[in-house]
Amino acid sequence: MRNRLLVSTCLLGAWLVSGCESPPAPTDSDSPPVALPTPPGAGEEASLAASNCNQLVTKAVTASGDDGNVAANTQDDDLATRWSAQGTGVWLQLDLGSAQTLTGTTLAWHRGNERQNHFVVSTSTDGSTFTQAYAGDSALTAAAQTVTFSSRSARYVRVTVNGNTVNDWNSIAEVRACSASAPPSTSDSGAALPRLPYLQSVKQTSAIVAFRTANSCNPTVRYGEGTSLTSSVSAGVTGTRHAVKLSGLSAGRTYGYVVEACGIRTGLRSFQTSTLSTATKAHFTAMGDFGTGGSMQAKVMAVMNTPAWRSELLLALGDNAYPDGTDAEFQEHLFTPMAGLLREVPMFATPGNHEYVTNQAQPYLDNMYLPANNPLGSERYYSFDWGPVHFLSLDSNCAVGLASADRCTLAAQKAWAEADLAANTRPWTVAFFHHPSWSSGEHGSQLTMRRQFGPLFEKYGVDLVLTGHDHDYERSKPMFGDNVASSTQRGIPYLVVGSGGATLRPFATSQPAWTALRDNQAYGFLDVVVDGGTLTARLITSSNTVRDTLVLKKTLLKSATRVQASALEADEAAAEEAQDTPPGPTDDRAEPRQRGPVPPADTPESVADPEEPLPQ
């Protein structure tokens, strides 16, 4: 009462004197706090528990303001902390990261056993337009309580508080958004699939989930944003090799999926769709010469699969399944050791010379479901976009003479590549293939690739070229033609990333003047982050260290043409993606089944290269 009396006395005498001390600003604790009853299970770090709520994970939380008790306090599972702010109409907002199916909100009010709070819960899909879902008063309790509303899809949940029955302070200890039922389990149930799901051709509006079953059946994939699997699609026909296409997706969103096949249900996994051209960021990894099923591949994968380095997509630079690229070797040397990563990170591959050992890479094509946007729809070479980056995948085996004319020709591939690069509007361009244009490793530079495609890369502004083949890491200086670029030329760095798992090899010569850095001691992969006008590429070793860093910078011009084109991008993407390889089981393989176990290709002899045409 002392503070209230002081306020009244000063107000009464304000017109006579101005010497009264200003009263302290009110706070949410301007009267002695009353001990709160401890909810069951609560403690110093009690978790929020309430009935009728399957709690969803909040990705970010914001508020219209605070008094020092910040919004993040409502997500710390501690009922002793809070968000608080004064005034009618202040709000707290949850961002779930993607649209979810919501049925309610659980709240624990600070000092909720003393006063009832007047509040409104609203939801939104875009963070701008909100629809009221609930309005009312809180129950007179300090325990968590759930308010329910009609089911709806939303990404944002806003709690607007209009004071309480005691004052106009608004204090929330914890808040969560609720879905109707528990999310699907992340554990697989039933017998193990002989090949677990792996993601292929993930685009803006579609994705392919491929897998194999031991018995012939017609599987179903259930999918949706976040953990709300509201859509499903059937393979349509029975078989044991499956590739099921998910359609109707939105760009840059996170989708969850489960596979139901032959009485088996895989655990929930998630992936991100490609972002629009207006996006400024992208994160991808790349490595070649990794498909051994051996010890060093496992060490590289252990690092790549950590949260710090897990990217949005993986570029596989060839020699993906040693020694001969057979179907059994793809199973044992690629899909089995990399299953955990490939369930959530789509792989965009290019064929290596070891894949060409078996029927000119036909098992490679049978195991991959890649964009089919070259004139032949062959998947041997293709392109795709991911946010600000245009990716160009070439079949260097075709260019150096390992393919018969009915499969692939240099002239056709080169003509397609030029047309593709000329049509590109993305600010960054990355080309990848197997045989290196610049290398001082055992095989040396592949001059056909350099002289046939280098001028195209220079003409159309390719920023980075990634290759494998030599079992080492090497980064060139910016190159132009057959030399290091001059100060007036726009050079291109060429990187050999053949250190993904196959036995490393000594360099054939001393380090040439055009090499910026080379290493044949460290196994690893390349991590690349594009952020606006900066591209940063790092070689990450199997011991989780950064061995090399390349930074490229450019000024991005946002032309009116690009902005206008982006308005039609979703429709165009959907039309283009409809041309991807039709999914479905294909069990009529001529290749004989492997008898007995497939040993790892973990020795120099097992990854030795077959003879191929000499560089020209």
Features of this protein?
single chain, 616 residues, alpha+beta, Jelly Rolls, Immunoglobulin-like, Purple Acid Phosphatase, chain A, domain 2, 3 domains, 8-stranded antiparallel beta sheet, 7-stranded mixed beta sheet, 10 helices, 31 strands, 14% helix, disordered N terminus, metal ion binding, acid phosphatase activity
What does this structure look like?
The protein is of the alpha+beta class. The chain folds into 3 domains: 130 residues, Galactose-binding domain-like (Jelly Rolls, Sandwich); 91 residues, Immunoglobulins (Immunoglobulin-like, Sandwich); 291 residues, Purple Acid Phosphatase, chain A, domain 2 (4-Layer Sandwich). Helix content is 14%, strand content 32%. The strands form 6 sheets. Strands 1, 2, 3, 4, 5, 6, 7 and 8 form an 8-stranded antiparallel sheet that branches. A 7-stranded mixed sheet has the order 20-21-22-23-27-24-28, with helices on one face. A 6-stranded mixed sheet has the order 19-18-17-29-30-31, with helices on one face. Helix 7 runs parallel beside helix 8. This is Serine/threonine protein phosphatase. Pfam families: F5_F8_type_C, Metallophos, Metallophos_C. Keywords: Signal. It comes from Corallococcus exercitus. GO terms for molecular function: acid phosphatase activity; metal ion binding.
